[in-house]
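User: Could you go from structure to sequence for me? I need the amino acid at each position, not a summary. Structure tokens:
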């Protein structure tokens, strides 16, 4: 098994390069890029490779289309890239398998950047088809993976192309791997992990791992409800994964074994998801009404979580602690951000599309040590310290 070679550790010049990026950005109203962090964060790799006279063919997915669908076209990303890289002609290749597409790639101009249309328009991408990986590989002489955010997937452009081309890691991938590994392996105590969001299912493995390293685990959002159920609290009509209640109890047992203090909301905000006029009512968890829908942590819980975050030296956060999409229920998440950014003695890493989307204030961004472009990828990397896409790069070139 080799180590990954990163682009700045090799002499890559005058090559046609297939560069896998994660431009899976969220769109408001289908036409506007809500947050361009993922695009911006791959710009250093793009510029680095262009500076050395390489020609780039970018590959990305957008969302989860099952088939070709204009709603998920990367055209909007091409337009945005043109703003970020005004010195280069940037064009979309509508279908790289068509005669026209092949010709466009053959005729790529010296400083022209090409972006292949959403790679998930081809079912073969998710099927990890080897034939498809070979077709992609045939477009270039070299492959670079800068798509940390999707490197937990076993898609053809992530895990199979590296079998057919000499392969390297990009600068963003390098930064993500180095920063997250260092934060986890050299974590200063107390370590505080904050977990929110809905699906406990996707976080079970991670919670087990966090209990090895964290002194405190603060749980909010939908997953907290499942833990409250596991402790016999009636959460009314709130989101709860009833089939995971037993698993939640096992995690409570594990936390006790590992001496991790695991904390849940003591009070909550009950309200209507779609109503932003009425800010909801605060209830103690024992008083959640039978028709109540828990949508945020309450003020007492904010204070408890805040006092623990204030003492932390290492902070890891994934997942909003409330239904932040409705501003009436974003206060808890907002307060967690506030607390993290006020503790400048701590190293903080924050990840997950929703967690990032919940950032309401620009100034929070610069006060967080590392904002990961990975959601699921960051969680899996913390859990296993590797990802399928990273392993594929380590296997070495053909
Ligand atoms: C993400 O948004 O987490 C990545 O782009 C991966 O997308 P996926 O969850 O649709 O595979």
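Assistant: Here is the amino acid at each position, in order:
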């Amino acid at each position: 098994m080799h180590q990954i070679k990163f682009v700045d550790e090799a002499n890559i010049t005058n090559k046609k390069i297939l560069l896998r990026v994660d431009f899976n950005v969220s769109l408001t109203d289908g036409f506007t890029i809500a947050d361009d962090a993922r695009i911006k964060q791959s710009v250093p790799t793009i510029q680095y490779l262009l500076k050395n006279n390489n020609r780039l063919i970018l590959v990305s997915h957008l969302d989860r289309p099952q088939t070709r669908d204009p709603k998920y076209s990367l055209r909007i990303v091409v337009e945005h890239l043109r703003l970020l890289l005004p010195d280069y002609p940037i064009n979309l290749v509508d279908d790289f398998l068509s005669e026209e597409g092949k010709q466009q790639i053959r005729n790529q101009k010296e400083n022209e950047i090409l972006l292949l249309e959403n790679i998930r328009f081809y079912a073969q991408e998710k099927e990890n088809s080897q034939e498809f990986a070979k077709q992609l590989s045939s477009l270039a002489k070299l492959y670079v993976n800068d798509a940390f955010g999707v490197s937990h997937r076993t898609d053809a452009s992530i895990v199979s192309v590296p079998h057919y081309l000499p392969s390297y890691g990009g600068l963003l991938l390098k930064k993500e791997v180095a920063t997250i590994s260092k934060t986890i392996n050299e974590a200063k105590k107390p370590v505080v992990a904050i977990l929110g969001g809905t699906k406990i299912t996707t976080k079970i493995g991670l919670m087990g791992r966090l209990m090895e390293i964290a002194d405190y685990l603060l749980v909010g959002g939908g997953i907290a409800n499942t833990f409250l159920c596991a402790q016999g609290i009636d959460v009314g009509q709130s989101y709860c994964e009833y089939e995971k209640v037993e698993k939640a109890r096992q995690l409570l047992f594990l936390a006790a074994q590992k001496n991790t203090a695991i904390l849940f909301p003591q009070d909550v905000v009950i309200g209507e998801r779609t109503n932003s006029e009425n800010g909801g009512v605060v209830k103690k968890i024992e008083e959640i009404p039978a028709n109540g829908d828990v949508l945020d942590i309450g003020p007492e819980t904010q204070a408890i979580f805040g006092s623990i975050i204030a003492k932390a030296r290492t902070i890891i956060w994934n997942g909003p602690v409330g239904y932040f999409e409705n501003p009436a229920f974003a206060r808890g998440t907002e307060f967690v951000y506030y607390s993290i950014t006020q503790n400048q003695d701590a190293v903080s890493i924050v990840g997950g599309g929703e967690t990032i989307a919940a950032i309401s204030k620009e100034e929070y961004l610069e006060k967080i040590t590392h904002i990961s472009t990975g959601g699921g990828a960051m969680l899996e990397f913390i859990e296993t310290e590797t990802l399928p896409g990273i392993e594929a790069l380590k296997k070495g070139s053909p």
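One structural detail worth keeping in mind: The longest strand covers residues 16-20.
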